[in-house]
Each structure stands twice: as structure tokens, then as C-alpha cells.
Design brief:
heterodimer; A: 302 residues; alpha/beta; Elongation Factor Tu (Ef-tu), domain 3; Rossmann fold; 2 domains; seven-stranded mixed β-sheet; six-stranded antiparallel β-sheet; 6 helices; globular; B: 345 residues; four-stranded antiparallel β-sheet; 11 strands
Chain lengths: 302, 345
């Protein structure tokens, strides 16, 4: 008489000793295992945003970690929480990644107290990316509002590294006030070295600001766009998408050449927790980069 | 698939054999409602007679054995300026007796999402692999509408399935484990007569359904009726308590909670069952809520259940057990909401 069930111990299976590869889907891996990183530098951008340079400590994991502009990571602050953060650095930088983090909630507030040398965890990269190769041979219009410049910095890096492959490159950037502008130290280089037409605008006049004031749509008056040969990338607060995308649609830029990067609450990054659902689509797996046609077909997207 | 028949006496011996060697869970009456109806739950049992296999329906589903309300995903151990993360999949083998077809179909749906999706869940896989599941047919309670959704019969997702043909159970054997265990008792080949009894039994069960919902074209109706006043009507009733998701056999959405242990030497990262009807489900840091209204959240749950998500090949995930309808404190019933949408009222 034998009725005993044998324990099936999956802790002894080969995947348990391998680092997870978040770029490879549909294989069993330790889905909650983080890559340990060290903060090697902290750049204070504004009073709310800091740029963290993170180096993955394990060499194998560092080699596995390859991302494309537009993708994000889940950033783990052990003991406090995990937050989705888009990658702001060049996809060619294999030494460290840069994450621009706003102090907004519990985890990010703790993170803002972290010092150089502190250890964090990351999982990823996750999500879709901007089709940078498809855009080659065309002009690019990058439109960012506020913190939206953080995810657009990766495609800007890509463009500067492949500048000869693209025609006119415009970056239109709007912020609430001059103190909130991100990456200001790079503007000169983008303009003078990389031949990028960077236009900035703020909603509220501030001390020492002699630039434009108004809404981001004001900037459209200053650029000439050839709709049949232009790709657009838009990222910003939810209110911005509608009027910017409508404007571009009115110009005649085809919907499948306009890309947006959306923000949602996320707890897993792997299409499981459902917190980031838009209509029937996972922002973490099928997004965060969507073309405008897909966005129009998603319920409750923007 | 291999089929056998077993007398109810031998079946009892079989189950007691399993109970003797393994941790076993089965349906037990745990309470009585104000209207006199019995309340059942899957509980640990120490003998066959403790179970009530004629139970109507358990308050919660067997899902919670595979997706517990709270489960540790990993833990961190802190040392001077550093930490180590440990990930472990802990589960003991166990037997579950008496799951109904709709509950097993619900697990088959979860299998698709959690074992074969973009990132298979090792936590779920460990629990599924270590569970021996025995299913059992039953006469449907009057408010079940699983037949409308095609989940009144089951073909996969179990080790052994029993259909009551009078003096005997007609067994569907779906795993080698079940086949080997059955060698301990007398189980014979079904005769032609047994086959006839089985078909009659199935026909009887099929015809005893009283509740139904119209699901024809429902996913397209949900798309079209996204701004329907029906959502406000039912959303206004909703109390945002999340009971529906807790008892649902397929609701799998979750949240992550991290807790630092007393002593500050370690912390735990836990998965906690969540409900899309809870207010902060889609609220991001900074305060923006992508589903600020009750109706947005209620609609979203129906959207997930009857239209389906991409991870699930856009198939509906509702199995029609009506547990949410029974658990809802505000009297929101999926049949009535759908019938309102289909304008059948």
C-alpha cells in the first residue's frame, strides 16, 4: 500500500543557480531575483529629481543586462519597495546605467536619502522600446513635458551616437518653471555638438529666465515639420498627450510614426500583477512605448 | 485518458489511504448562514467522514491553495552596508479532494496565465506541481451559471475526476500518479452499462442549470458600451471592499508589500492578493489615479473577466461560479450587470 506523494522540489532545478534573463520571455527563471548594484554617483538635478548612476556588481549579470531606449527597470530598495523607473542612459553604456528618479512616494523618498556606495537591486529591462532603426533616414521630433525628458534621454543618446543616420532632430521640452528643468548641463552639447534643435519653454517665469514662457504647443510655431518624413516621440504628464498628439495628427504625421511612453502603477513588470493594465493591455509587457494608433484603440489610455 | 469505475466503499478506502500518507484538504461545513444555509470551506481533514462531498459550493475557491492571500517572494538579510537576497519556493505535497469542475477550469485558466505567459511564475508552478487534485461533479446550485460560460464540464487541470453514477464513481484518470495510487484499491474497467449511466448523469446535470447569462458577443458589447450608464448604476452601489476578488477562483491581480523585520536585520518581500475595486489599485506616486471613480474600477473588473486580457489570448476568465455575487455586500451580481449590458432586462 503506497499513497505517499513525492515532493517535487523545484529549488534544485538548474534555473535556480542561473541569473534571471529578463530579456528572454517564456522560460522559467527566478522572477524576483534582483541584480545587485552599487550607486557609483549621484547627480542632483533639481530639488525633486536626482540622477543615480548604478553599476551592476556581478560581471555575468552586467553582461546579460542589455536594454533598448524606452525600456524600464524595476528598482528595488531592499526593505522599502520596488518602483518602475525608465532608463535614462545610453544603451551603449555597458558599465553603468542612469536612472532619473523623482521624490514622489515612500520608496523614492528613501532612495533620495541614499549615499554613494549604497547597494540597490534592479530587475529588467522590461517593456517595449522606441524603433530607433526604423526611424533612420527620417527627421525626429522628441517632445517632453516635465519628468518626461527622463525616458527621452535614452533615444537622444542613441541619436547623438548615430547622428549621421537621421535628418533634422528637434527636442521640444516644456517644464513648469526654470528650476524644474532637467539635464540643463547637457543642452549646449546637444545643440552645438550634436546639431539638435533644442527648444525649451516654461509655464511660469522664474528668476534669471530669459527664454520662452507658455505651453509646450507654443514651440510648434518655431519648427518646420515635414509630416511625410518625420517620426515623433512624446512623453509627459497625462494631460499633455492629448493636445500634443492631436496637433501632430492634424499636421498629418501617420499614427504609426507617433510614439508615446505611458506611465502606470506597477508591482511586477512581468504582466502578472495587472496593476498597469490599460484596457486589455499590459503597460509593462506590451508598453510602455506604444504607437498612437494602439493608444487610440486602448480604452482609458490617455 | 484512462477511465475506470470504483465502488463508493472502495473510493472511501482510497481517500483514507491518501489522507493517511499526505496532508489532505476537503470540503467541510464550517458555519451556517442566517438563512440556515450551510457554509463550506476547503479545510484540512483527517478522515473521509469529515468531508461533505455533497457540499453545494465553498465560500472561497481552491485558488487560495495556489495563490495564497499572502506569500513571501524573497527576503533580504542586512549586514554592514550590504544585503543578500534569498529566493526560495517552499511547498509541501498535498491532496485536495472534491474540487468542482468550475474550480478546476479556473485553475486551467490560471495555468495558462501563470505557467505559460511571458514570465512563468515559479511560485505557482511549485504549488501546482506539489498538489494532487481530485475533482468531483455535482448538481449545480441554483445561482451558478458556469454552463453559460462552458465551464460546467472539465477535461484538464486535475489528476483524477469522479462522476457519480449511483453505486459507483466513474473515474477519469489524468496522471500517472493517480493511476499508480489506484492500484491500491479495486477499480475496474467501465462496462457498457456504466457508460450509459455516465451519459445519463451528465445529461441530468446539464439540464438542471437554472441560472444563465447571455455571453454571445459580450466582448464586443463591452468594447462598445465602455461609456454606458450601466457602469454608473452598478458602480454607485460598489463599496470598494474587494470581497469579489478574494473569493473569485480566477482573480490573480496582486500587490507587493515589503516589511522590515523587528530587529532591523532582515526584510520580507511579499505578494498580497489585491482587488481592482480597491481605490488605490491604479494610483501612481504623486497622487494621480488612473481609475478615480467606483464605476471605472467596477467596469475594469468586468472587462478583465468577460473580455479578457492579452496574456490570456483575450479569452474571458470568468468561470460562472457566482461566488462574487454571493460575497458582494452591496448586492452586485454579475448576471444582472451583464443582462443590463445586453439590454435583456
Amino acid at each position: 500500500m503506497d499513497y505517499r506523494l513525492q515532493r517535487q522540489n523545484i529549488n534544485t532545478e538548474p534555473f535556480m543557480t542561473k541569473p534571471p534573463q529578463y530579456n528572454r520571455k517564456s522560460i522559467v527563471m527566478r522572477t524576483d531575483k534582483v541584480y545587485k548594484c552599487e550607486i557609483i554617483n549621484i547627480v542632483e538635478l533639481t530639488h525633486l529629481e536626482k540622477l543615480f548612476h548604478l553599476k551592476i556588481l556581478n560581471r555575468t549579470e552586467r553582461r546579460i543586462f542589455k536594454f533598448r531606449p524606452g525600456q524600464f527597470v524595476m528598482l528595488e530598495v531592499p526593505g522599502f519597495g520596488e518602483v518602475p523607473i525608465s532608463i535614462s542612459s545610453s544603451s551603449n553604456n555597458t558599465e553603468y546605467i542612469e536612472l532619473c528618479v523623482r521624490k514622489a512616494g515612500r520608496t523614492t523618498s528613501v532612495l533620495h536619502q541614499a549615499q554613494k556606495g549604497a547597494k540597490l537591486g534592479i530587475r529588467g529591462p522590461f517593456g517595449t522600446s522606441f524603433p530607433m532603426e526604423e526611424m533612420m533616414g527620417s527627421s525626429i521630433l522628441l517632445i517632453a513635458g516635465g519628468l518626461g525628458l527622463a525616458p527621452l534621454r535614452a533615444p537622444v543618446y542613441w541619436v547623438t551616437e548615430h547622428r549621421d543616420k537621421y535628418k533634422d532632430v528637434h527636442v521640444l521640452y516644456g517644464a513648469k518653471d526654470p528650476e524644474q528643468m532637467l539635464f540643463t548641463y547637457q543642452y549646449d552639447e546637444w545643440k552645438k555638438v550634436n546639431n539638435i534643435n533644442l527648444l525649451t519653454i516654461v509655464e511660469k517665469q522664474g528668476k534669471g529666465w530669459d527664454g520662452r514662457t507658455g505651453l509646450i504647443t507654443e514651440l510648434f510655431k518655431e519648427v518646420s515639420i515635414k509630416p511625410d518624413n518625420t517620426y515623433a516621440i512624446v512623453c509627459g504628464p497625462p494631460v499633455m498627450f492629448n493636445f500634443v498628439c492631436n496637433y501632430l495628427d492634424g499636421l498629418g504625421i501617420p499614427m504609426n510614426r507617433m510614439f508615446v511612453s505611458l506611465e502606470r502603477r506597477m508591482h511586477c513588470g512581468m504582466g502578472k500583477c495587472c496593476r498597469c493594465m490599460i484596457g486589455s493591455t499590459f503597460t509593462c509587457v506590451d508598453g510602455p512605448v506604444f504607437d498612437y494608433w494602439s493608444v487610440l484603440n486602448l480604452k482609458e489610455a490617455i | 485518458m484512462i477511465y475506470k469505475v470504483i465502488t463508493k466503499n472502495e473510493f472511501k478506502k482510497f481517500i483514507n489511504g491518501l489522507i493517511g500518507e499526505n496532508q489532505t484538504f476537503g470540503p467541510k461545513q464550517v458555519d451556517r448562514r442566517a438563512d440556515g444555509k450551510a457554509v463550506y470551506q476547503f479545510m484540512e481533514v483527517s478522515s473521509f467522514d469529515e468531508m461533505d462531498l455533497n457540499y453545494t459550493v465553498t465560500y472561497s475557491s481552491v485558488k487560495n491553495f495556489f495563490l495564497p492571500f499572502k506569500e513571501e517572494l524573497s527576503h533580504f538579510k542586512f549586514s554592514d552596508n550590504d544585503w543578500e537576497q534569498a529566493v526560495e519556493y517552499r511547498v509541501n505535497p498535498r491532496v485536495i479532494v472534491g474540487a468542482r469542475p468550475c474550480d478546476i477550469n479556473a485553475l486551467a485558466i490560471l495555468d495558462k496565465i501563470l505557467m505559460r505567459g511571458a514570465f512563468p511564475s515559479p511560485y505557482y508552478i511549485a504549488r501546482r506541481k506539489n498538489t494532487f487534485l481530485i475533482g468531483m461533479d455535482h448538481e449545480p446550485p441554483e445561482d451558478c451559471f458556469c454552463k453559460s460560460l462552458g465551464h460546467d464540464t472539465v477535461h484538464r487541470g486535475f489528476n483524477l475526476f469522479c462522476e457519480d453514477i449511483g453505486e459507483q464513481y466513474y473515474l477519469t484518470i489524468n496522471s500517472s500518479k493517480a493511476f499508480v495510487f489506484l492500484k491500491n484499491v479495486k477499480a475496474g474497467k467501465p462496462t457498457k452499462k456504466d457508460d450509459v449511466k455516465l451519459i445519463e448523469r451528465r445529461k441530468l446535470l446539464r439540464e438542471s442549470f437554472q441560472a444563465r447569462v447571455e455571453v454571445a458577443g459580450l466582448s464586443s458589447v463591452l468594447d462598445i458600451e465602455f461609456k454606458s450608464p450601466v457602469w454608473k448604476k452598478w458602480g454607485d452601489k460598489c463599496l470598494n471592499c474587494g470581497s469579489c476578488a478574494m473569493v473569485c477562483p480566477t482573480c490573480y491581480c496582486y500587490g507587493i508589500e515589503e516589511t522590515i523585520d523587528v530587529g532591523m536585520k532582515s526584510s520580507r518581500k511579499e505578494r498580497v492578493q489585491y482587488s481592482c475595486n480597491l481605490v488605490d489599485f491604479a494610483q501612481v506616486a504623486g497622487g494621480h489615479n488612473f481609475r478615480p471613480l467606483k464605476e471605472d474600477r467596477l467596469k475594469y473588473r468586468f472587462y478583465h473577466h468577460y473580455r479578457g486580457f492579452a496574456e490570456n489570448a483575450d479569452d474571458p476568465i470568468c468561470v460562472g461560479c457566482n461566488r462574487c455575487g454571493r460575497a458582494c455586500l452591496a448586492g452586485i451580481n454579475p448576471r444582472e450587470v451583464i443582462s443590463d449590458l445586453q439590454m435583456e432586462g
